[in-house]
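User: Fold this one for me? It's Thiamine-monophosphate kinase.
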Amino acid sequence: MLGPGDDAAVVGAPDGRVVVSTDLLIEGRHFRRDWSSGYDVGRKAAAQNLADVAAMGAVPTSLVVGLGVPADLPLEWLDGLTDGFRDECAVVGASVAGGDITRCDLVVIGVTALGDLGGRAPVTRSGARPGQVVAVAGRLGYAAAGWALLEAGVPENPVLEEVVVAHRRPGPPYAMGPGAAELGASAMLDVSDGLLQDLGHVAEASGVRIELDPRAFAVGEPVSVAAKELGVDPLEWVLTGGEDHALAAVFPSEVRLPPSWQVVGRVVEGEGVLVHGREIGRRGWDHFR
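Assistant: Here's what I get for Thiamine-monophosphate kinase.
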């Protein structure tokens, strides 16, 4: 309703409630300027916050951005960053409502995203119940494969470009979040730290066990090609790789899911996450492990 230019923005809340999420990105920890352009980082920073809002079943409406940058940061890089924010917000019809900037030794980006539930109940992590199914929408393993290729110094080529781009600019299935809420999803989150680890949060919050069938996962061809290039099991990236920001949700078994949702497991009594009957543990990204 009122954007940048004053001491604060004014954001409408038609539902009477506001969904809020925040994230922090630090150069060298979450991105590297020699790997990603300013535009890439802007798209990525916006995407991971907008995805959190969508994972609650809400429609993202706006972002506010806190930015710390070195004094010698090229203006072109900063212009690209703001363009990236603008273009990623445009995907969901959101906008950058304002923010703050300061001098810093590294590029540090703090993003807060706001969203509207449209009269729906928020879809939390604690709603999974035995007898339900677990489904995934969006890509898994792509961003992890791209990171691994960059880390290994594999020369970029058209065959591997898709996974490298996925690391630089994830493409969350934003519309699937509110859509899942409409379908009756009882629990949901975005896959930011790895499917096994993130579903572990659902299992713990809901007091249930989640059993995954590895045969149910469709491994994308670019992920398979990258895995062959590096001599690794692509399923490892699919199950433990983060930053694709796919959505994982739990639905009643009687719900007829559209093809955009892939059923990959079930909810039973117990605790933890099992793959093929074996408890794997929360393998994935943990900042303090």
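One thing worth pointing out: The first strand starts at residue 19 and ends at 26.
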